[in-house]
Each structure stands twice: as C-alpha cells, then as structure tokens.
Amino acid sequence: MNKSRGRSAFLFFSVAPAVILFVIFMIVPTLNVFRMSLFEKGAYTPAETFVGLKNFRTLLADTYFIRSMQNTILLIVAVTIITFGFALVFASILTREKIKGQNFFRVVFYIPNILSVVVISGIFSAVYKPENGMLNSIIGMFRDMTDPILWKGEKLVMVSLVIAMVWQAIGYYMVMYMASISSVPESLYESASLDGAGRIAQFFQITIPLVWTNIRTTLTFFIISTINMAFLFVKAMTSGGPNHASEVTLSYMYSQKDAGLYGYSMSIGVVIFLFSFALSALVNKVTEREPLEF
Amino acid sequence: MSTKKQGGAGNRLYRALIYVLLGLLAVLILVPVGWVFMASIKENSEFYGNPWTLPNGFYWQNFVDAWNAANMGSYMLNSVLVTALSLILLLLIALPASYCLSRFQFKGRKFLNLCFMAGLFINVNYIVVPIFLMLRDGDVWLKKVFGDGFLLNNLIVVAVVYAATALPFTIYLLSGYFQTLAHDYEEAAYIDGAGYRTTMWKIIFPMAKPSIITVILFNFLSFWNEYIISMTLMSSAKGPKTLPVGLLNLMQAQQSAAQYGIMYAGLVLVMLPTLILYICVQNQLTQGMTMGGLKG
Q: A4 falls in which pLDDT band (50, 70, 90)?
C-alpha cells in the first residue's frame, strides 16, 4: 500500500511539471489562437467583442493576405523540391562513391544549419547588396553594372529568399540521408550493376525506394518547418517588403499583431494551423507506398 | 566497387565532375561565411568599392565598438544566461517526465504521450502572439494587485517559455532512448533497496548521457539562435535583449548609419560560439541528428 502510494507520488512529481508547462505555454495558447480568431480584440480596444467569422470574411478580401499565402506556397514548393533533390543526390554521391575528404564535405555542408537565421540574413545582405555585394560584383565581371541587379527588389526578392533558405537547409538533410543511404546493403548495388543498371538507374530504382520511409517522414516535417523558416527569414531579411512583395502568412500574422489587430492576427493563425495540418496529411497520403524491406 | 569495373576515361571524368560539384557547394557555403569574418576587421572606408579586396590590417576597434557602444557585450551575457537557464530547466523537467512516460504503466500515460507527440506539430512561432498576450494580460493584472508587472521584458520568463516549448521534441528524443533499456536495471536496483527516485537519478540518467548530450546540443543551438520569442516578449527599448535580437537591431540601424564594420563584428560575435561548439562536437551533432530524425 505504502509502496504504491510512493509510486504514485513519484510519478506525479516527475510528470506534473512537464505537463503544467506544456499546458500553459503550448495548449492554452493554441486554443487561444482559435478562440481569439472569433473576437474583435485590439491594442486600442481593450474589450473583446464576439464577431463570429467576420475576421475570416475580411481575410478573404485582403489582397495582402492572399499574396502572403501565395508566397508561402511558392516557398514551400520551391524550397522543398530544390533542397530534397540536391540533398538526396549529394548524399547518395557522398555515401556511394569513394570520395576523398568525405568527412570534410559533411562538416562543411552542415555549417549553415548551426547559424542563427539573423546571422544568415546578415550574410545574405552582404551577398545581395546592389552596389558592391558579393553576387553583383561577380556578375559585374560579365555584364555591365550601371543598373545593378536588385536582389531584394520587388521582382527578385522571392528568388533571393529561396536561395537563402536552400543554402540553410541543404546540409542538414544531406547528412540525414547519408545515414539512411549508408544502411542500404552494398550487395543490392552490386547485383544491380551486374545486371547492367547504371548509376542513375540505381539511384531511382534502389536508393530512392529503399529510403522512401525516411524521405516521407522528413518531408512532412520539412514542410511544417518551411512554413516557420520562411517567417524567420522574411522577418530578418526583408520584413515582408518591399511593398509586401515577400510577405508570408506568419509574417503577415505578426505584422497584424504589431498593428494591434489581435483578433484579426489570430484568424490568420487559424488559417496557418489548418493549412499546415491539411498539407502534412495530404503529403502523408500522396507519398504512401508499400514499405520495402532489405 | 562497381566504379572500378566500369573504369575508363568516362568514369574518371564522372569522378572529376563530382569533385567539382562538391567543391563548388563547399565554396558556396564557406566563402560567404569567411567573407563576414574578413569584413569584421575592415575599416569603414574599406567598404566602398570592390568587396573582395583583403583588409588593410586588423581593425579590432570594430569588436570593441560592437561590444561596448552597440551593447553586444551585455546582450552576450543575457544570451548566456537565458540559454543556460532554459537548458537546466528543460533537463530538470523533461528527464523525469520522459523516464516515467516511457517506462511506467499508469493511467493516462497513453493520452499524455499522445499530447506530447501532437506538440511536435505545434510550432512556437504559430503561438507566439497568444503567449505574448497572455503574459501582457498577466502583467496588467499584477500591476493592479501588486503595483508592478514582471512577466514581459524578463529574461527568466523567456527561459521558461524556451524550456516549455522545447518539451515535446526533448521528451520524444529521450523517451526513444529510455524505451530501449532493459527493465533489469531497475529491478536490480529495487532489490538492492533503492527507491524510484534514487534509481532514476543514480542508475538510469547516467546511462542516458549520450542522449542527454544530444538534447543539450540541439537545444543549445535553437535557444542561442532564437529571436522571434525573445523579440516579442522583450520588446521594451530599455529592457534586456538577447544577442540575435541585438544583432537584428544593429543590422537595421546600420542601413542608415552605414557602420558596416561594427555590424560584421556583431555577426561574428553571434556565430563564433556556435561555430566553436560545432568544431568541437561535430561528430556528436551529425550522428545525434539521425537519432532524433527531425526538428522543429
């Protein structure tokens, strides 16, 4: 009896702090996102008024919001395809071929992942500077630079963001896939090569199918994290500008909070929540395959 | 092995191409980072014209100015405090919780595990606005009752928020490890008369050291580099700031003041600790990553 009471007390005091913090700082705020989206609440109007779905109706007509959704989707698609494509190819090259200095490449490729997004945006502001940035000074050797390329201008700002985000993410995923590709038995490649399958055929018919489970899990999380990383990059690199050209959904949500429109800001929060869940469910469904054993 | 069999000039060309590609990618990563280090010791007048010229000398004044005039010194101290405190809090809370959630059968265990799993999908930045409003309302209430609020612009509160929002990932990672242990360890300890708490601290946690180090590494990087929460919860101009937020302000001020040298010195100050740590532990980090498998 005494022993079981001791057990319960031990369990309670071990688990309770984590549960309390989790509820206060994650569950309650999440519920609040959904609740507050139905209210009109602002920095200058202390009282909350229930307005039903009015915030969402306003959203649908808000061109900046629609722009921010488009930009978010563009970043998700572009950054995911480029990062995963390059990461898989490079990972398979580094694990499959006997490359000298393999460890050196692995260490270098992982560096961007340990830097703060603020630092990365500082680095890229030096890269993208119109007058004497690193990029324009190199292009200037081949092209007349009287009208410098405005990498952060309205036209190119999304491309510049994609480059910076791929630069940041590629090493992390490469190192991850190197681990899973190296677990594929060498004998499979040997017999495939005896059957006359070239490197490209081996990549698509052995490597990709056998690490598919891993690709699938990472893809789901990558998409969720891209929604978030897009915000971090936009906030530090462009603040959504110029002229809202690079606004993403989360940065627009944040700017509405700064404008003091809390209820409206949270209706954007609801959209991004539902969007990210729906998207991960969709990706999960679309990428479903019979798992292969090796 | 297959490479040898195919042999020939085509194969050598292919290998050369691979090295060129890999080298190019390495250059694309190393050059911009190295450039910032180089720029941090340039004088302001050297920033006009060709960006690829080497610095005239070591202009350390940039670092002195960044450290003192731009307050990076005190921001650095704040960052160290917040990161250390949130790591300690996180470990003290997450270790016992993940141990119990993964190795004990009790009512509600499945439900709690499910909740923490779901927490993996909630990104902090989705909920930063309600967290801010909650703390602000708390401050308003505290002001009414005690005459002073302390929830916003407080390093300790930021550390608590960091620890709380890192719980799902940390519990996921640690539980994964605890599940692999055999139950014999505890049984032997209980027979020797050790209680639950002693067993947990003296037997189980020391065994989990590699996982704990992985947890510390990942969370160190994410706490040290974080800026949205810190910026939102410590927005007062006079209040404390962490290093990335201070750097962001410096970068924005630099656009009008054109003090490039100080800005790049600030950049170096923020990334140097993480780079040094990375060089020391890069194996642990890249291997631990595949263990975690994901991150927020």
A: confident
Residue A226: count of CB within 10 angstroms of its CB: 24
Closest-CA residue of chain A to B18: A93
> How high is the pLDDT of residue B296?
36
Using the beta-carbon criterion (under 8 Å), do A15 and B96 form an inter-chain contact?
A: yes
Quickly state the pLDDT bin for A142 (edges 50, 70, 90).
Answer: confident
**Domains located in chain B, CATH noted:** 63-292 (1.10.3720.10)
Look up the CATH number of domain A45-286.
Answer: 1.10.3720.10
Name which of B165, B196, B274 is nearest A7 (Cβ-Cβ): B196
Domain spans of chain A? 1-30, 45-286
Q: What is the ipTM of this complex?
A: 0.88
Residues of B in contact with A277 (CB under 8 A): 121
Nearest CA-CA partner of A254 in A216, A228, A215, A274: A228
- The per-residue pLDDT for range B233-283, each reduced to its tens digit, is 998 888 899 999 999 988 888 776 667 888 899 999 999 999 998 888 877
* CB contact (8 A) between residue A118 and residue B122: no
Contact (CB<8Å) A225/B296:
yes
pLDDT in tens, A85-98: 999 998 888 888 77
Q: Which of B42, B95, B267 to probe by mutation at the A interface, max A CB count within 10 Å?
A: B267
Distance CA B200, CA B207 (A): 10
